[in-house]
Design a protein that fits this description.
Two copies of one chain form a homodimer. With 499 residues, chain A is an alpha+beta fold. Chain A is built from 14 helices and 27 strands. In chain A, the strands form seven sheets. An eleven-stranded mixed beta sheet of chain A has the order 3-7-8-14-11-10-9-24-27-23-22, sandwiched between helices. In chain A, strands 18-15-19-20-21 form a five-stranded mixed beta sheet, with helices on both faces.
Chain lengths: 499, 499
């Protein structure tokens, strides 16, 4: 067996491998606060690139940003019963507004609040209350607002990026005069998310509707993008909810329509979070660490100068500086290339492996011999660490963007092939049970089968620790029979073990 | 008296005028949560522009972003005694992690935490604990990290943007191997802030050191940028702290230096917040509403199409679309112009006044007659609302950037002239008392005088409700006598009533 940079490997222990990739790439670490993580600069840069892309798309589709309070009064949460049922149970509650000495050299809470406040687990209720004030007439609609924020859910079992008590996200909240317009918005955002996941994160997703028993609490319809990780588990990577008039009714968002009738608005909400980074890690990384898709990589190219003495050092640094300047003039998806020269004085092997583990798409080595030949050594993160290609420098500068595009496409295609090879059509409950029951099954994956969109099928899933992921939007209607109930249905549903 | 868009005017009731400008420009509103505001899209867009500029400057000076937890364990706060004294007293305390039915149809907190958690009022302690883990050797230094985040201080008296319980800010936290390097960082950031305030917000500031009794709790030196509002009160617009080894000692940030000695690091912290928006409003706005400096204005040019019937409407809209495209090709400080066409079907007067109140630097009117003459009507927000200039369209397109620069410069110069005309040199305690005692004094302003940097002078200030703002960095040393103590000093100090 070859030695790998990450121990254990994916095959040996997938969950532990995931944690070790995060450590090796210096993406994040758990903090002293239960369930909360510190997102370190390399991990946060991934989030900034995600933010930048999405923010631009949200604005291009007519949305504006705003900011609503972190804390929600208890009475606001009580207005939407189903919503509380699903959300507000495990959350951080602020009860005091002061600290005073406890008499033992420490501090204790003081100044009890008349009404406790909850740190937002999501902002439907507080934003709904604001929209109720803002909306009077059909002229005030639509409202198309997005918020970038931190939210908090008191999770019992946490895992970095995938499930943490505090996480960062964006939450869109829109209000419309008609049901049709709100549904269009919900689906437009779903498409935007899917395109982002596939084009930017190189993460293939299935767009679908959640079955009724997996909907967001209070939603009429919840749409999702579902991705397959390398252990064949499903990751819900983003959701878009059509809330009907439910939240408008509980918050009182009413408007005088053109026909002079007072009506409740139709609302939507949608979000993606730092969980996407977990998805990105688990989709692309290998036993040597992170593989960052070029479009979100914090640095796309790292230049590693190689020299023996101070005289050479200056020559090599100058050459590298010049190379960096030339590369930064190249545009990759309309943006300047992100290029870094690692001038640190550490061992070459250690330096190279740090960048491999951090997943930088291209590593360039430049030494005196290369300068003589006007060449350089190129290593791609999507190849074996040992493979280097020697290229003429000008050739490389003119080809760098194409190579990065090739890497981006390779990562997507590889992930898509893997996913498609692990979706199984199943035609009976026996087959279904056998597939998921086999714990050491080599045929792990998603199962697609006819199934009734009804909570009664959940009883077949729970013992297997399997969840219904979605009813894919892109499928033909056909006559089928639910494998659980024997009832006639015309759509297939996707099932999987999941994060 | 002419009728103004804002009632009351600045002269009639300055604090109330300020609130009304915020309402009229639709920048923000108070939320149902005590002391917390909702930052509405027009206000948030100002913050986004501030963020974008600063973030770019921070990165250009070697900083990276990261994210640390919102909640701080009580035990962390107890480590830095002075810091707690100054900060942690009034803060939001999380004591429970669950809600359960209260038996009366409502909810109540449940699941008491073993250790209460505090919503960060600032992050020195939690970030210090992380740096203590990360730093081992001089090779790990400097650490240059910034965080964009929300923070919370339980304020008794709140005022939108200026002082709210929750606010948005950036906080830089750096650790260095030497005192000199940390001091250089502190002052470099102070310069960066001053340049930003003056060049981008058009808000003149005085760079200075806080007297010892006004320092950040736990800091060795606190530097500030101080601005004068139109009511002559001072606003602390940003601070940069040299923390010496205080926080490194309480957090345990130690490193093995080149000389093999174990040493404590030298740290800094620095921040600006959404308070800058309050400063911007109070520096430039007038009795007709907000005046947004072009460099941060959410829209720099608004185009107002004028037409009588549907046939004209199409012609005018086409002309406006074309004008917008041409304007957007112009670069203003290396960025595309932000241009908006207001196509809403509302009364022309109402529409125009909305944009005046929102402070858009340039309003362009285009009607059928203008199209025939290939001209347009230009109104500047820094002129009277009645003044319009008719310009040839091509001429305007080529001149738009220059006009915006002129407005930006005008706003700065006007504010600077006002400020400089309201700084008074005072040579005795009698003069000092007389100046500030006169409540209806027409000579309101800043007072500059010789004063001892010692807490004993505070007793002279408190009865007058005056604060020591700073010891300006840009002043000659000279032999003087403290007006309060009679002791010899060589620097003048600035005093003012303040926000």
């Amino acid at each position: 067996m070859e030695k790998t940079a990450i121990t254990p490997t994916r095959v040996e222990d997938y969950p532990q491998w995931y944690q070790q990739v995060i450590v090796a790439a210096d993406l994040a670490e758990m903090s002293p606060v239960r369930g909360c993580m510190i997102i370190k600069p390399w991990g946060y840069a991934l989030w900034e690139n995600i933010q930048q892309y999405l923010d631009k798309r949200f604005k291009a589709t007519g949305h504006v940003n705003a900011y609503f309070p972190l804390l929600i009064p208890l009475s606001h949460l009580e207005t939407e019963a189903k919503h509380v049922e699903g959300f507000a149970k495990e959350c951080a509650v602020v009860t005091h507004h002061r600290l005073v000495p406890d008499g033992k050299g420490g501090l204790k809470p003081d100044g009890e609040l008349e009404e406790p406040l909850v740190i937002r687990p999501t902002s439907e209720t507080i934003i709904g209350a604001a929209y109720a004030k803002w909306v009077k007439s059909y002229r005030d609609l639509p409202i198309l607002i997005n918020q970038w924020a931190n939210v908090m859910r008191w999770e019992m079992r946490t895992r970095m990026f995938l499930r943490t008590s505090e996480f960062l996200w964006q939450e869109g909240h829109t209000a419309h005069a008609t049901s049709e317009e709100a549904i269009d918005e919900t689906l437009m955002i779903l498409d935007l998310y899917a395109k982002f996941a596939e084009d930017v994160l190189a993460m293939p997703v299935i767009k679908g509707a959640k079955p009724c028993f997996e909907r967001f609490p209070g939603a009429v319809d919840t749409y999702t993008i579902e991705a397959m990780m390398q252990d064949c588990k499903a990751l819900q990577a983003g959701t878009s909810h059509f809330l009907g008039q439910n939240f408008a009714k509980s918050s009182g968002i009413q408007f005088l329509d053109k026909d002079e009738q007072l009506k409740f608005a139709w609302t939507t909400s949608w979000g993606v979070s730092t969980r996407l980074i977990g998805g990105l890690i688990m989709t692309h990384s290998d036993d040597d660490g992170l593989i960052a898709p070029p479009r979100v990589a914090p640095e796309q190219i790292v230049i590693l100068p190689i020299y023996r003495n101070d005289a050479d050092k200056e020559t090599v640094f100058n050459y590298c500086n010049n190379l960096k300047i030339q590369l930064e003039q190249q545009l990759f998806y309309s943006k300047e290339l992100r290029v870094h020269i690692d001038k640190r004085d550490i061992r070459g092997g250690e330096r190279t492996w740090q960048w491999i583990k951090k997943g930088v798409p291209l590593r360039i080595e430049v030494g005196m011999k290369d300068i003589e030949n006007n060449s350089l050594a190129v290593a791609r993160r999507d190849s074996s660490p040992k493979v280097k290609q020697f290229l003429n420098m000008d050739m490389f500068v003119s080809q760098a963007v194409n190579i990065l595009k090739e890497i981006q496409d390779n990562l997507f295609n590889k992930a898509k092939e893997f996913r498609d090879a692990h979706i199984y059509e199943v035609n009976s409950l026996n087959e279904f049970n056998a597939f998921f029951a086999a714990e050491l099954n080599q045929d792990k994956g998603f199962v697609s089968c006819f199934a009734l969109d009804d909570v009664i099928i959940e009883e077949y899933l729970k013992p297997l620790k399997v969840t219904a992921r979605c009813i894919a939007l892109e499928q033909e209607s056909s006559n089928g029979v639910c494998i659980f109930t024997g009832k006639p249905v015309n759509k297939k549903m996707i099932f999987a073990k999941s994060y």
